[in-house]
Amino acid sequence: MAQKREKPNILITGTPGTGKTTTASALAEATSLRHINVGDLVKEKNLHDGWDEEFDCYVINEDLVCDELEDLMEEGGNIVDHHGCDFFPERWFDRIVVLQTDNSVLYDRLTKRGYTGKKLSNNIECEIFQVLLEEAKDSYREDIVVALRSDCIDDIHRNVSTLTDWVRSWSSLS
């Protein structure tokens, strides 16, 4: 498949608390790619169908999000940061990064964020059963999906370095 974009698009996904936004921000800075935090975009552009009281979050309207991102994604040069991935068109991404965190580390991160009850337990279970890795493998070509450990700041630095090298090698192929 011939590359049509000058710069690649990367999706960084994973359970909340795995370091997606931190990693995406650092990678954007290192590569000059555009960081798109889908959660922020949903709030800013009202791309939701209301508030879910049980999970204390917006109910994302996936069609509105995809419509909003279409032109940017076709242009290339984006790092999309979101905890889900199965609703994005496969053609948009050249690399899917699934961040994974040890459950005890993740538990501490989420409780510090104020997660409790069903929201906390569902996210921990999601990580235990590697739901997002399976979702990525089911939604995209397996050769573009990578799982990276994200337990500490050293992991994040290593991941950003690895992904920066990948972006540079991708760009040299186009």
TrEMBL record:
Organism: Sesamum indicum (Oriental sesame)
Gene Ontology terms: cellular component: cytoplasm; nucleus
UniProt biased composition (Low complexity): 13-22
Encoding gene, per UniProt annotation: LOC105170329
Binding site for ATP: G17, G19, K20, T21, T22, R113
Residue segments, region NMPbind: 37-60
GO MF terms held by the record: AMP kinase activity; ATP binding; ATP hydrolysis activity
Name of this protein: Adenylate kinase isoenzyme 6 homolog
Catalysed reactions, as listed in the record: ATP + H2O = ADP + phosphate + H(+); AMP + ATP = 2 ADP
Entry's localization field: Cytoplasm; Nucleus
EC class: transferase
